[in-house]
Structures are given as structure tokens and as C-alpha cells.
Design brief:
Blueprint lengths: L19 E5 L7 E7 L2 E12 L12 E8 L15 H14 L11 E11 L4 H15 L9 E8 L2 E4 L3 H4 L5 E9 L4 E5 L7 H37 L1
Parallel strand pairs: 4-5
Antiparallel strand pairs: 1-2, 2-3, 3-5, 6-7, 6-8, 8-9
């Protein structure tokens, strides 16, 4: 990245997202599903349920539970080959994803039940947990689960003193001072549902990073909303 230029190595402006595309209803046997692509990172999410939770001793008669499983495929892209199966990192991201999505769900509607969300990434170039959260949010909506709001997520950060939105793998791997901050917001209310930080920032930098994250998450939300509307407006047209 040229410090004397406003452009990044891939030609984007500091506040610019990588190209985004999305689809819903792509996995036939799932109750809801979605694909979310940002740059070269692709996430698929499939929702199953709500269904009765087994074993029964795990059931809660007052509410259901949300279970997320995050999985990067072995040859998914940038960085070292990922070992198949659960890892400490995938377990941590699965829990982070659950916490990012829980504020928009009313699990009291599903006593003794479970909502399972499976997130798989066949291709990656940074921002994988955020892409997974975006895909999962769309898949839950596609499944007809009542949600108070959508959840949109993106990684923002500081790279050698510059505040950037949607860091690429090349930027995350830049020599020098790099701070990576995955964030998630509910677009309508602006509620922060995820904040993680790898690196160090000042209080002023943190505030500016959150402002940028909130701004670009609204752009991501517009894609999520348009994709869901397109599917269901198309279905209503076919019924007519």
C-alpha cells in the first residue's frame, strides 16, 4: 500500500468495500440458506429448525437455543492449509457468531428447541467470520425466523496509521502496525453485536473505526435486504 496515495493495493479507497454478491434459498433441504460473497471470501450458511433439542437434558422449557458451526474448508484459499474438523479457532468463531446473532432473535418462541446454523467457507481472503455472520443472518431470515433486525458485519482496522474498511488478506499480512477489528451491527437501530480487536488502537482511533464500521455495514445491509426482497418478490410473481 502506497502511503502517498489515497488508493490501496487493490485500487479501493480507504472506506470502500470489496465487491459484494449474495443469494438466498440455495440449499434445497435446509429450512433457510444463503450465500454471501465479499471479494474472494465466500460463505454459505444453512439453517435447520427450530426442531426438538436432543438429548433432552439440554432442553430449556422457557426458550430455545442457537447453535452455530463455523467451518473453513481445507483448501479454501489464503494462508496455510486448514486442518479438517473442529479447531480452537473454529470453535471460538462459532461462539462469536452465536453472540452476534442472539440480540435479534426471540428464542422464547421455541421452548425445548434448537436452531442450528452451519457456516462453510469454500474460498477465503480475510473477513471470514464477518462474511459468515452476514450469510447466517440472511439464512435465518430465509428460514422465516422472526428477527428484530438483520445483522451485518465487516472488519475495519488500522494499517500503518491508515483507517481502512474491509481489510483484505494482503492488508492483514502487511509488515508494520496492523490492527484488525471485526464488528457487527443491527442496521436499523445501530446496535453493536460484535466487537473484537487484534492489535492496538487509541480511543480516538477506536471511535473512528466504529463509525466507519457502522457506515459500511449499512451498505452491506442494503445488499442483504435487496437479495431477500428479490427472492420473495419473485416467488409472489410466480404464484400470480
Amino acid at each position: 500500500m502506497d502511503k502517498n496515495s489515497d488508493k490501496r493495493t487493490d485500487g479501493r479507497k480507504p472506506e470502500e468495500l470489496r465487491p459484494i454478491s449474495a443469494r438466498v434459498g440455495i440449499i434445497r433441504k435446509a429450512d433457510g440458506s444463503a450465500m454471501f460473497r465479499i471479494g474472494d471470501t465466500i460463505a454459505y450458511a444453512a439453517v435447520y429448525g427450530p426442531r426438538e433439542l436432543y438429548p433432552k437434558f439440554m432442553q430449556d422449557p422457557t426458550k430455545g437455543i442457537l447453535r452455530c458451526r463455523y467451518n473453513m474448508m481445507p483448501f479454501s484459499g489464503s494462508g496455510d492449509r486448514v486442518r479438517p474438523g473442529p479447531s480452537r479457532r473454529s470453535t471460538e468463531i462459532s461462539l462469536v457468531t452465536e453472540k452476534a446473532l442472539l440480540p435479534v432473535l426471540n428464542l422464547e418462541e421455541f421452548p425445548n428447541a434448537v436452531l442450528d446454523v452451519f457456516i462453510d467457507l469454500p474460498q477465503t481472503d480475510a473477513g471470514t467470520r464477518c462474511a459468515g455472520i452476514c450469510a447466517a443472518s440472511m439464512a435465518l431470515a430465509d428460514a422465516g425466523i422472526f428477527m428484530r433486525d438483520m445483522v451485518s458485519a465487516v472488519a475495519v482496522g488500522m494499517v500503518n496509521g491508515r483507517l481502512l474498511a474491509d481489510l483484505s488478506y494482503e492488508e492483514e499480512s502487511t509488515e508494520g502496525e496492523v490492527s484488525d477489528m471485526p464488528v457487527a451491527f443491527t442496521p436499523k437501530t445501530g446496535e453493536l453485536t460484535l466487537l473484537q480487536l487484534d492489535g492496538g488502537v487509541t480511543k480516538t482511533e477506536l471511535i473512528k473505526a466504529l463509525e466507519l464500521g457502522r457506515k459500511v455495514c449499512r451498505e452491506i445491509y442494503s445488499v442483504q435486504k435487496a437479495t431477500l426482497k428479490e427472492k420473495y418478490s419473485g416467488e409472489s410473481g410466480e404464484e400470480d
